[in-house]
Amino acid sequence: MVRLGGWLLAVLFLFGLADARAQEPAGAPRFGIEALGVESANGMHLFSVEVARTARQREYGLMGRTTLPENGGMLFDFGGVGYVAMWMKDTLIPLDMLFVKPDGTIGVIYANARPLSEEMIRPGIPVRAVIELSAGTAARLGIEAGDRVYHPLFAGVAP
Question: By the 8 A CB rule, do 60 and 95 touch?
């Protein structure tokens, strides 16, 4: 198991905090920011993600944002395992959606979700969480289904 050092998590946290907070539209819910790692065939990729844990946060997500930091994103915590559906309503930037199974592995990647679309995006498998990154990030970094996500949310998979 790969372990991320505490100092590295602190740097990621501080890096993402300023960028993410600057992008929040007026009236948006507040999101906590946490470090997250994705281990792919070509290495560990570190992100500073906003975490949507409440129903209001999950409903709002990245709506109204015009940019997303290069190593930023959003982690949707559904509080349990189930079938989920996502959409891009009022979301202005294209996104990659990584649907994460309860064991912390990526089950499905939906690349380049179309801004402002109300099409329901369903992975067809039960998931614990969804990670949204800027469109093209998964392909650029070689992130694929089966890769492991490191975050305290996943049982037995802690950074």
Answer: no
Residue 156 domain-assigned (yes or no): no
Instruction: Write out the residue range of the structural domain in which residue 133 sits.
Output: 6-150
| Number of structural domains in the chain | 1
Residue 119: Cβ within 10 Å count: 12
Q: Is residue 135 part of a domain?
A: yes
Prediction pTM value: 0.83
Confirm if 13 and 71 have CB atoms less than 8 A apart. Answer: no
Residue 18 lies in a domain: yes
Question: In the numeric block, which tokens belong to residue 83?
Answer: 């079938």
In angstroms, how far apart are the furthest CA atoms of the chain? 41
Domain presence at residue 29 = yes
Beta carbons of 132 and 61 less than 8 angstroms apart: yes
Rounded to whole angstroms, how far apart are CA atoms 121 and 2? 31
**1-17 pLDDT tens trace:** 444 544 444 444 444 44
